[in-house]
Amino acid sequence: MGQLLHTITTAAPLAIYAFTFLWLAAESAGLPLPDELVLLALGAVAQQGRVSPVVLIISAVAGAATGAALSYTVGRVFGRAVLHRTAWGRRLSPERVAQVERWMTRRGWIAVFISRVFPFARNVASYGAGLARVPPLAFYPAMLAGSIIWCTTIITLGDVVGSHYRAVVRASGGPLLLGGVVVVALVGAGAALWLMRWRGRRRAAPVAAGPPGPGHS
Q: Hey, where are the domains in the chain?
């Protein structure tokens, strides 16, 4: 991982953007890749002024969304046949996929959103959403919102920490830093969920009130 991070931080800007897209797409499509440290390193490169943080975030979100959309489509269209009969699909734990599928069935778009913000089940969550038949109009907005929050949070943190991110990772052993990232993401996710629910209640309020009575114009 150390050599990989060194290669990333010394590559040309276009290569960094392309790598960011491909890495996030592969991770979201099911490969067990550690995206947190990679995004932190990329954020540190942005702090140095070698790449644009905005373009970097766009590349990361585009990659994450592409991989998640592919996983969702495979799960929704082909089901378990692909997961059980291909070498690629067998890399995913059937038990974990089944757990995520049950969670997606119960929670729908909320589970999709949470799975994109936190690192615990991200590489299998979209398969579970497809298997659970989460509607596309629920899946894609929640997936995009969660991907934007996660990628923006990690890259911005790497930008703030700057060239000292390696020392921070060594000093904290990784888990402490990841815990801080999760806390920040939790705040962002909570705020986004509250906003979406608030908007939903506002849209539902006129319907619940019913049409105006005969004495109203």
A: 2-205
